[in-house]
Amino acid sequence: MSFYSRLILAFSPKDLVRAALVPAVLTTAVLTFAPAAFAERTSADDESHIDDPRVQHRSYVFEPTGETLPYAIFVPSSYDPNGTDSLPLLVSLHGLGRSYDWLMGYHGLLDQAEESGYAVVTPLGYIREGWYGSRPAEDPQDGIYSEQDVMNVLELVRDELRIDSDRIFLWGHSMGGGGTIHLAAKHPEVFAALGVAAPAPAISAPMDELLDKIAHLPIFILQGDQDELVPVFATRTWVAGMAARGMQHLYVEIEGGDHSLLISQDANNMQKFIDFFNIVGHKQ
Questions:
Q1: CA distance linking residue 14 with residue 172, whole number of Å
Q2: How far is 246 from 173, CA to CA, in rounded Å?
Q3: For residue 36, what pLDDT is reported?
Q4: pLDDT confidence band for 116 (50 / 70 / 90)
Q5: Count of other CB atoms within 10 angstroms of residue 166
Q6: Of 275, 283, 270, residue with least CA distance to 92
Q7: Residue 176: which residues within 8 A CB-CB, separation 6 or more?
Q8: Residue 223 near residue 263, CB atoms below 8 Å
Q9: pLDDT tens track for 136-173
Q10: Residue-range domain boundaries for the chain
């Protein structure tokens, strides 16, 4: 059965109709985020907001600066530390200004990860507004450290748990969506598939160059048509670029959907990401 045949079976006809409503020619995207600026680490960067016994809060020493950086992980109850089975992993990137564990509180995520047997990790990205290296900053080191923190945490989890190297999935919301595209383009051999919700790549991001680098990776895109931070036409522009390259992609546009609540408080939309990754299964 083909990739798109499996999508049709897994997603509702309403979703697939929305996914088809993407104009072939679109206006250049103009995002409404302010330019990135220098931001020194503060105590707020290390704050956590999710108090759930299933979430384990961890930290490690970031070698370039000697600072201790936090991250959070979820391990499904089916995992046997003494067994032989490997886990798929969701590397999950938060939005601008959010805490490192913020995505662990998205409605449905942990229940769905438990049901499908996924480990979940949420890195900080060095600071809350680091952009994971996807946007220029007044101090370029912020972006470098932000990207490096994500990759460090990925390695920490792979060292601690038996992670299936063919089933590492990267997804993010808003700033995390922009970071997902950027990091996947920098490390295209690492990930099996991508997911972005209301993605916020930089206005200056070289879309064609980035898409060329991730053209082999299946990607799921979720966008609200009433998003006031990431205009819907901006995301449609990127989706059109994916279509032009023949990328395996699914775009779901939510009528009346905003920038945040359409994913953070909607378990049905969160499930779409899990379903997509389940369909992809492993590296193509």
A1: 24
A2: 24
A3: 43
A4: very high
A5: 12
A6: 270
A7: 92, 93, 94, 95, 103, 132, 196
A8: no
A9: 766 788 899 999 999 999 999 999 999 999 999 999 99
A10: 3-280
Whole-model pTM: value is: 0.89
Structure tokens at 238: 């990127």
Fold of 3-280: Rossmann fold (3.40.50)
Alpha carbon of 37 to those of 79, 91, 127, 169, 205: distances in Å? 41, 25, 12, 29, 17
Q: What is the rounded distance in angstroms from the CA atom of residue 230 to the CA atom of residue 238?
A: 12
Q: Which of 281, 177, 283 is CA-nearest to residue 221?
A: 177
Residues 60 and 73: their CA atoms lie apart, in Å, by: 13
Q: If phi over 0 gives left and psi between -120 and 50 gives alpha, with beta otherwise, what is residue 281?
A: left
**Cβ-proximal residues to 35 (8 Å cutoff; 6+ apart), any chain:** 135
| Best CA proximity match to 200, nearest among 22, 12, 17, 35 | 35
pLDDT of residue 11: 58
The DSSP string of 83-149 is S-PPEEEEEEE--TT--TTGGGGSTTHHHHHHHHT-EEEEE--SSTT-GGGSS--SSHHHHHHHHHH
Chain centre distance of CA 276: 13
- E strand or H helix that includes residue 166: strand 163-173
